[in-house]
Amino acid sequence: MIGQKLRIGRPMATGLLCLTALGSNAAFALTQPAPYTTPGTYSYTVPPDVSTISVSVAGGGGGGGGYDISGNTTGGTGGTGGPGALLSGTIAVAPGNTVTIVVGGSGGPGTSDSDGNPPAGGTGGNGQGAGGAGGQSGTANASGSGGGGGGSSSVSVAGIVLQAGGGGGGGGGSYSEVGGNGAGAAGAASAPACATGVTGATGNTPGATDGGGGGGGGGGFTAGAAGTAGADGTTATGGGGAGGSCYLGTVQSLTATAGGGAGGAGGVYGTPVPAAQPGGAGSVVLTLVAAPAPVPTLGEWALGLLALLAAALGVQRMRGHGAARH
């Protein structure tokens, strides 16, 4: 036997291959898609061997309200925009499914007479449901305009939809009055029409009187309400309402919070005067989960073991013939 080569016959090779294939349950690396953080619409195809996707959908934040140029020690500052909603959960998919992704934009800041711009309400963010524009300040004197509402973000695949509403815009500052803060989007309702987005309401304006403009409503499954207009020395503006969030189909471990795009800061009366800030844009994150490896049947295990047994008998006979020759 010294120096004799051991040849593995076809039966043994077949058996070893069968058992190796059946027993292999090694995880393979999945290439995860990059987070979607730029407002717009995208599509993604589910790759092979993926059965589940964890999703995180964040709506855009509302813009801050502009400040009142005259202000005083107790007022004039614009309200802060509200944060967008954050929906998270796990959904079942199949390889080849197309995932449609919409990332909501941020609400724009309200302007003030003294910031180098004509008084104007902040623009609403784009999205599945666009945010409403902020209300313009009164045409008399120098109050702040309202911030725009944030746009909603969404994910849809194989009849399953999640839509995260945008935050409301902050109300503009009025003399002696601080603008109201925009509402943060939170909570989610089951809705057959969840794939439809609605534009938030435009903030109210005081018209020819002196006062701040109301914040714009956030976009979403339902429209965020318009913020009320203010009046110098008597009435503070109202921030815009948050856009509604929803889901359609089976979503495992669903959570809904006001953790989406951050609301923008309101303009602050003072010297120097900081201008109002836009809200944070929405985002969508997809995390792929590999399909579990199939469990071999008893028949498949038996076939592999029989092949190994036949191979072992063949090797034993080959050894016996070799010993007889010597």
3D structure, described in words:
This protein has 326 residues and is α+β, with helices and mostly antiparallel strands. It folds into two domains: 29-293, no CATH class; 297-326. Helices cover 13% and strands 17% of the residues. The protein is built from two helices and ten strands. The chain has helices spanning 10-23, 298-325; strands spanning 40-45, 50-58, 86-92, 98-103, 153-157, 160-164, 189-190, 246-248, 252-257, 283-290. The strands form two sheets. The protein has a six-stranded mixed sheet with strand order 1-4-5-6-8-7, with no helix packed on it. It has a four-stranded antiparallel sheet with strand order 9-3-2-10, with no helix packed on it. Strand 5 and strand 6 (160-164) form a beta hairpin. The longest helix is centred in the last third of the chain and has 28 residues, at 298-325. It starts with 9 loop residues before the first helix and ends with a helix. Mean pLDDT is 86; it is low at 1-6 and 21-27.
SSE arrangement, N to C: HEEEEEEEEEEH
Number of strands: 10
Terminal residue distance: 9 Å
Q: Quick check: average pLDDT? A: 86
Structure annotation, total helices: 2
Q: Rg, please?
A: 31 Å
Strand content: 15-25%
- Largest beta-sheet characterization: 6 strands, mixed
- Helix/strand-derived category reads alpha+beta
Q: What is the overall shape?
A: elongated
Sheet with most strands: strand arrangement: 1-4-5-6-8-7
